[in-house]
Design a protein that fits this description.
This protein is of the alpha/beta class. The protein contains 15 helices and 13 strands. Its EC number is 6.3.5.6, 6.3.5.7.
Length: 463
């Protein structure tokens, strides 16, 4: 096995045991990146020599007993909404052509302090306003969408061009590309990870979280990212938590909510089969399945868009008026639509969110975790605009991709997407675990237990 194939946890163990140096790991990942990047276009920019300097510094520190923890010397990619001092934060947009960050974002500073090595910035759908990341190809099939908006981050991890990455999630933008590329994506509880220095799409829905190869890796990254930051008004003051899941797989006594409504409607048959089989595996580990009904389902997407549209337009108000021609057409149209929404529309969406949160809280008193598909289908063809379901319903691809991930953003509950198989075309399928606010430990425990019952996953065979 080459170093670039190692999970974060395995790489960390090897570095700590002095069996692998940060320089060897970073060189291996950069070599893989150089090979696959022309095929996938996951990165906006790569700073290979800077990464090698950071790796040498990490190696020197480790040799002198200054080991900073499991991220020490591990190479990462950051979604290009996340500020790093001296780097451009382009948001994959011509609007930001001359941008340079003056200071690190909170998450970038914490990762650097933990010893992680930045390889480069990864592509996003322009300003995170979309579900496909059109610049980037799916790691398993270059003719298909990567998912979005954190498509570059997920593809880099899936292809071995980063050991881990960070994405952002406003309506599913970590979990969707994670599911479509066969990796793990965690959207934490709203406010758990500070967003200072991260370009906003919709401030009341935005989250930052890790994309990794394994659930254990996600736990290691999350532990570094959390902690109150007063510069983010939504940031939570929470005690330090050890998120690492235990080695056991016994889920006896755990109650898993199995939705009767919404999550299994308009779903690809192979996706449904894979997710239900994975839920069966959790039951075999001792979990008890409890059927539940998802509340207010007809209001989910109207509520999401009722919040995103006006908040995004408010954020972009100045540049939308001064340089509208610099936006891609799909994003510009959404921003212009946001200008047509009234204050009443926005307040009704806020009220709907409040009611939805209250009803979800009641459901989560009766179960510990909810299990459901992450997205209703595998990756669509890059030129595919709609999907037709067996009952004749036609749905836009972006609407389909956001449909099952949106509830966790509206309610702010944590959600973890894990790979649970592939379809007949070899495309990855994801299962989503949702939990109580600040219930990340339970999600990670369940996801890790499931992983232990499965063969080790290989990287995407990019060709």
């Amino acid at each position: 096995m080459q170093p670039y194939e190692l999970s974060l946890a395995a790489a960390a163990d090897a570095i700590r045991a002095r069996q692998l140096s940060p320089v060897e790991l970073v060189d291996s990942v950069l070599g893989r990146l150089e090979k696959v990047e022309p095929l996938l276009d996951a990165y906006v920019t790569v700073a290979a020599e800077q990464a090698r300097r950071s790796a040498r510094a990490a190696e020197h520190d480790a040799a002198h007993g200054r080991y900073r923890g499991p991220l020490h010397g591990v190479p990462m990619g950051l979604k290009d909404l996340i500020d790093v001092a001296g780097w451009a934060t382009t948001a994959s947009s011509r609007v930001r052509a001359d941008h340079r960050a003056q200071a690190d974002s909170t998450v970038a500073a914490r990762l650097t302090a933990a010893g992680a090595v930045l390889l480069g910035k990864t592509h996003t759908h322009e300003f995170a306003y979309g579900l496909t990341t059109p610049q980037t190809s799916n790691a398993w099939d270059r003719g298909r969408v990567a998912g979005g908006s954190s498509g570059g981050s997920a593809v880099a991890v899936a292809a071995g061009a980063a050991t881990f990455s960070l994405g952002t999630d406003t309506g599913g933008s970590i979990r969707v590309p994670a599911a479509l590329n066969g990796v793990v994506g965690l959207k934490p509880t709203y406010g758990l990870v500070p967003r200072h220095g991260v370009t906003s799409l919709s401030w009341s829905l935005d989250h930052v979280g890790p994309i990794t190869r394994t659930v254990q890796d996600a736990a290691l990254v999350l532990a570094v990212l959390t902690g109150h930051d007063p510069r983010d008004p939504a940031s939570l003051a929470t005690p330090a938590v050890d998120y690492r899941p235990g080695a056991g797989t016994d889920l006896t006594g755990l109650r898993i909510g199995l939705p009767r409504t919404y999550y299994f409607d308009h779903l690809d048959a192979q996706v449904e089969a894979a997710v239900r089989h994975a839920i069966g595996q959790l039951e075999a580990l001792g979990a008890r399945l409890v059927e539940i009904d998802i509340p207010m389902t007809r209001y989910i997407q109207p509520t999401l868009w009722g919040l995103v549209l006006p908040e995004a337009t408010a954020y972009h108000e100045r540049t939308l008026r001064t340089v509208p021609e610099l936006y891609q057409a799909d994003v510009r149209v959404l921003l212009e639509v946001g200008e047509l929404m009234t204050a009443g529309d926005y307040l009704r969406a806020q009220r709907s969110r409040t009611l939805m949160r209250e009803q979800w809280a009641r459901i989560l008193e009766t179960v510990d975790v909810i299990a459901a598909p992450t997205v209703p289908m595998t990756a669509a063809a890059a030129d595919q605009e709609t999907v037709t379901w067996p009952d004749g319903t036609v749905e836009g691809v972006s609407d389909a991709l956001v449909r099952l991930s949106a509830p966790a953003n509206i309610t702010g509950v944590p959600a973890l997407s894990i790979p649970v198989g592939r379809d007949s075309a070899g495309l990855p399928i994801g299962m989503q675990l949702l939990g109580r606010p600040l219930g990340e430990r339970a999600l990670l425990r369940v996801g890790h237990a499931y992983e232990q019952t499965q063969p080790a996953r290989a990287l995407a065979p990019v060709a």
